[in-house]
Amino acid sequence: MITVFSKTNSLANHFLAELRHIDIQNDRMRFRRNLERLGEVFALEISKKMNYEEQEVVTPLGVATVSLLSEQPVLVTILRAGLPMHQGLMNYFDKADSAYISAYRKAKKNNEFEIKMEYFSTPDLTDRVIIVSDPMLATGQSMVIVCKELMARFEIKELHIASVIASAEGVAHVRSHLPKACLWLGAVDEELTSKAYIVPGLGDAGDLCFGEKL
């Protein structure tokens, strides 16, 4: 299943437009906040596909029957750009467990690169619903490597992947390697440069959040 927010009219498009805007994105705090707000939108939409059970809640005047989540997901983020979006997901899934993974591109010759993972902190994911968030899904290689590592270590019940902007190539790569994953995307851009930058995209999300890195 693939859900793309930009294909429908909602406030999510306003947050996405500000993330892309070359002048507005210079406000680092607003850039992080827009990623956080989109994380909240992702959380709300994903929650509609989860399992619920009826419970009774005692009010001052009686008893109300409500449908509540039958289980909490585990929120997984890829450091460092994923942190603001992860916060947005946590704002709504406020009882969820969290996991953190460091995955980055290490440059090689001829504009090629390899994906390196150097940090892996996660609770037991056996029989759990997990939501992996990363603002940008460019080639999709980092996402596939991270998710396959999680699936190799644990018997995961359900996998959701959330990205603000994806390339068409990245979506195809994830779909071919993770066919059972549910993809939640803010927008899908067609072009990917030789250096694996999404066009029009928005630039380097990590740098825009936290400053340029060496």
CATH class: Alpha Beta
Query: What series of H and E elements makes up the topology?
Result: EHHEEEHEEEEHEHEEEH
Termini, distance in Å? 37 Å
What would you report as the Rg, rounded to the nearest angstrom?
18 Å
**What are the low-pLDDT stretches, counting only 5+ consecutive residues below 50?**
none
Binned strand content: 25-35%
Keywords: Glycosyltransferase, Transferase
GO molecular function: uracil phosphoribosyltransferase activity
Enzyme class: transferase
Domain Phosphoribosyltransferase: 9-211
Question: How are the elements arranged and paired?
Answer:
Layout (H helix, E strand, L loop, with lengths): L1 E3 L7 H9 L7 H20 L4 E8 L2 E8 L4 E6 L3 H10 L4 E11 L5 E9 L7 E5 L2 E2 L3 H13 L4 E10 H10 L4 E8 L1 E2 L5 E2 L5 H6 L4
Parallel strand pairs: 1-10, 4-5, 4-7, 7-9, 8-9, 9-10
Antiparallel strand pairs: 2-3, 5-6, 11-12
